[in-house]
Amino acid sequence: MKEKLMEMIFEEECIRFGHFVLTSGKESDYYIDVKKLITNPRALKLIAKLVGELWGGDAFDRVAGPELGAVPIATAVALEIEKPLLVVRKKKKEHGTGKQIEGEVKPGDRVLLVEDVTTTGGSVLRAAKVLEESGAKVVGITVVVDREEGARERIEGEGYMFMPLVTVGELFEFKGKFRA
After folding, report:
1. Cα(139)–Cα(119) distance, rounded to whole angstroms?
2. Three-state SS for 163?
3. pLDDT at residue 180 is higher than 60
4. Which domains does the chain have, with CATH numbers?
5. What average pLDDT does the structure give for the chain?
6. Alpha-carbon gap, residue 80 to 67, rounded angstroms
7. What is the DSSP letter of 162?
8. Among residues 177, 178, 164, which one has the least CA distance to residue 34?
9. Is 122 exposed, middle or buried (0-12, 13-18, 19+ CB in 10 A)?
10. Residue 14: CB partners within 8 Å, gap ≥ 6?
11. If residue 130 lies in a helix (H) or strand (E), which one and from where to where?
């Protein structure tokens, strides 16, 4: 199934070449647009199945995703594994309840945090801290694609288990075999 995911990444033309500034602030000559991939329901289902197989349903109580790109992924995983969903906002709402997490978090809840792409891991680590400040225990972090630019080292250095579905190295190796 992992090979099918990589095939879909290329079929959906989710890797573009040029000059890009990433969320991390780093510059890159390629961009991985997982958001383009996750608008395909077949790809989203496949991602959810892969995450479910990677973690099983007993390792966590809830699945969370930081807004925006991870929300469809977290929703698909929650549906696949039948676990409650949490959405972590980038900042607290300035109106209404002022919450930063949508969904119910109870102290001690074990949470799987999912993300679309990691470069340095900064965004997903900020979401992990928000979850832990609410009393949750982040049991692991999974991303669809790890760009292999320090995210693993930084995330694991903070004490989290990190399990990407695919790495950019695997994607580029697969590209040589792929024929659209």
Report:
1. 20
2. coil
3. no
4. 2-175 (3.40.50.2020)
5. 92
6. 20
7. B
8. 164
9. middle
10. 32, 33, 34, 36, 37
11. helix 122-133
Give the pLDDT score at 1.
Answer: 92
Put the strands of the sheet holding 137-146 in their side by side order: 101-102, 85-88, 62-66, 110-118, 137-146, 166-167
Q: How far apart are CA 127 and CA 170, in angstroms?
A: 26
In contact, 143 and 166? CB cutoff 8 Å: no
Is residue 116 within 8 Å of 145, Cβ to Cβ? yes
Distance CA 103, CA 15 (A): 33
**pLDDT of 179 above 80:** no
120-174 residue pLDDT tens: 999 999 999 999 999 999 999 999 999 999 999 999 999 999 999 999 999 999 9
What are 167's two structure tokens?
């790495």
Residue 175 · residue 10 · CB < 8 Å: yes
Q: Which two tokens stand for residue 99?
A: 């919450």
pLDDT digit string (tens) for 11-24?
Answer: 999 999 899 998 88
Residue 94, pLDDT score: 60
Nearest CA among 26, 60, 88 for reference residue 163 = 60
pLDDT at 97 over 90: no
d(CA 67, CA 123): 10
